[in-house]
């Protein structure tokens, strides 16, 4: 389960949502740095909860189970209103650059409900990884980095925060793209949270 950002790339060049502009500023920052590969727009996501992630002996989720899971998630998402998170500042680590999400709630509660739905359909041992705190990978590292060389400079990427409306949720099959050191998404189904004018508390 993933939340997809609204980047509004159909707008004129150099515009888009504040989150899109933050993504672009980070991409500009890493352009001269060897070994950092920006995640393409199509793969940008806020992770909600993987199924069987890091459980290497777990079998693939079958189509029948996916169909049941889709119905379960449709009901869950239908009970939620869209909510806003603040993303940032960019943080660099050995794996790349991410944006953490703030505040913890209601994101953590939404993750908890999704995890319970996955356990109910896929079994109690289908959760192998806790995504919290919320985060979005912007750049992946293709080599070992001495992050101290870049952490201070990254602080000069300003504005360093942007809002993200959590509204579009997808169930997707995720595969790795080793040359680009990032993931690619095959969307199985899409869910829209309720109109954000009826927000839950943030």
Please specify the SSE layout and strand pairing.
Layout: E1 2-4, H1 18-30, E2 36-38, E3 46-47, H2 63-78, E4 83-93, E5 96-102, H3 107-122, E6 135-141, H4 148-154, E7 161-166, E8 168-177, E9 182-192
Antiparallel strand pairs: 1-3, 1-8, 2-6, 4-5, 4-7, 5-6, 8-9
Note down, in words, how this protein is organized.
- The mean pLDDT is 87.
- With 202 residues, this protein is an alpha+beta fold.
- The chain starts with a strand and ends in a 10-residue tail after the last strand.
- The chain has a five-stranded antiparallel beta sheet with strand order 2-6-5-4-7. The protein has a four-stranded antiparallel beta sheet with strand order 3-1-8-9.
- The protein has helices at 18-30, 63-78, 107-122, 148-154, and strands spanning 2-4, 36-38, 46-47, 83-93, 96-102, 135-141, 161-166, 168-177, 182-192.
- It contains four helices and nine strands.
Key traits:
single chain; 202 residues; alpha+beta; 26% helix
Distance between the termini: 21 Å
The coarse overall form would be globular
Count of discrete alpha- or pi-helical segments spanning 4 or more residues: 4
Taking all residues together, what is the mean pLDDT? 87
The strand count comes to 9
Task: Output the radius of gyration.
Answer: 17 Å
- Determine the oligomeric state from the structure: single chain
| Strand residue content | 25-35%
Roughly what percent helix? 25-40%
Biggest sheet: strands side by side, in what order? 2-6-5-4-7
Largest sheet: 5 strands, antiparallel
Low-confidence parts, pLDDT < 50 over ≥5 residues? none
Structural class: alpha+beta
The succession of helices and strands, N to C, reads: EHEEHEEHEHEEE
């Amino acid at each position: 389960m993933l939340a997809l950002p609204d980047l509004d790339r159909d707008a004129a060049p150099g515009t888009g949502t504040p989150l899109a502009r933050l993504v672009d500023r980070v991409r500009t920052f890493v352009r001269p740095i060897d070994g950092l590969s920006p995640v393409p727009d199509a793969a940008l996501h806020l992770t909600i909860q993987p199924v069987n992630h890091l459980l290497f002996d777990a079998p693939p989720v079958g189509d029948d189970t996916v169909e049941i899971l889709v119905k379960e998630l449709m009901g869950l998402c239908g009970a939620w209103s869209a909510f806003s998170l603040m993303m940032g500042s960019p943080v660099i680590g050995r794996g790349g650059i991410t944006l953490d999400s703030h505040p913890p709630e209601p994101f953590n509660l939404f993750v908890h409900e999704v995890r319970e739905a996955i356990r109910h359909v896929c079994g109690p041992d289908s959760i192998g990884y806790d995504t919290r705190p919320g985060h979005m990978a912007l750049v992946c590292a293709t080599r070992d980095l001495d992050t101290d060389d870049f952490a201070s400079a990254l602080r000069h990427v300003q504005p360093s925060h942007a809002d993200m409306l959590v509204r579009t949720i997808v169930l997707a099959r995720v595969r790795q793209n080793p040359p680009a050191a990032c993931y690619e998404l095959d969307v199985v189904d899409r869910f829209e949270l309720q109109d954000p004018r009826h927000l839950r508390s943030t």
